[in-house]
Structure prediction request, 56 residues.
Amino acid sequence: MQERVGQCEVCGREVFCLNGFLDGVAENGRLHCFDCADREAPDGPRPQVDEDSKSE
Ligand SMILES: [Zn+2]
Prediction:
């Protein structure tokens, strides 16, 4: 059983509730999918910057 809860505020993906388990993160009334919640985690490790990226 899955129930649509809403949309991820970042990527717009639909977030469902699966058997009572939220397929994402709801915080302060905002809804994020796990991917975006991972990316936006304030205390998480920062993603490595590609050294080949151009700097202007
Ligand atoms: Zn998302």
The first strand starts at residue 2 and ends at 7. DSSP finds one helix and five strands in the chain. Helices lie at 34-40. The beta strands are 2-7, 14-18, 21-22, 25-27, 30-32.
